[in-house]
Specification:
154 residues; Arc Repressor Mutant, subunit A; mainly alpha; single chain
Length: 154
């Protein structure tokens, strides 16, 4: 079995992000939390995931500060998992993955779930990337400015 390499010290923000939330179970847990799932058993039922994997992923998302554990909202002895502001900031990521999946992972006309505006009941407009001035930009309009290597990096 290949040992997983930590990317927590990587210079690339994407690599660091994927180190914490990049596996599919973690992103599906976050998706379910956006849909209002709060309890361990509810996550397990929704995802069909083993208790051990779910426990590890929830523990990791809590340690990362994406979820927090709170006393159950119904006053029972259970704990709820609630998105933090850091977790809520993943909303555009979840929407972008959903929209990509809708565009490229279904045959034309194939039914799938849909994310709609709660007030209007309408589909969301496709996400776009904008520059600091608000102009829409494409991949070809960007470049990654890498950190300069120091002598200790050689």
């Amino acid at each position: 079995m290949v040992k997983r390499v930590s990317l927590s010290d990587a210079e690339c923000p994407m690599a660091r992000s994927l180190d914490g939330i990049g596996d599919w179970w973690s992103l599906l847990i976050v998706r379910d939390a956006f849909d209002g799932v709060r309890r361990f058993g509810e996550f397990q039922k929704s995802l069909g995931i083993s208790k051990g994997i779910l426990a590890r992923r929830l523990q990791g998302l809590v340690a990362l500060g994406v979820l927090t554990m709170t006393s159950a909202s119904d006053g029972s002895a259970w704990q709820d998992y609630v998105l933090t502001s850091k977790g809520e900031a993943l909303f555009p990521v979840i929407v972008a993955l959903r929209q990509w999946g809708e565009a490229f992972c279904y045959r034309p006309g194939e039914p799938h779930s849909e994310l709609v505006d709660r007030k209007k009941g309408k589909s969301l407009a496709p996400l776009v990337v904008r520059d600091a001035d608000g102009e829409i930009i494409q991949m070809r309009d960007t470049v990654v400015k890498k950190l300069a290597l120091s002598s200790k990096d050689y």
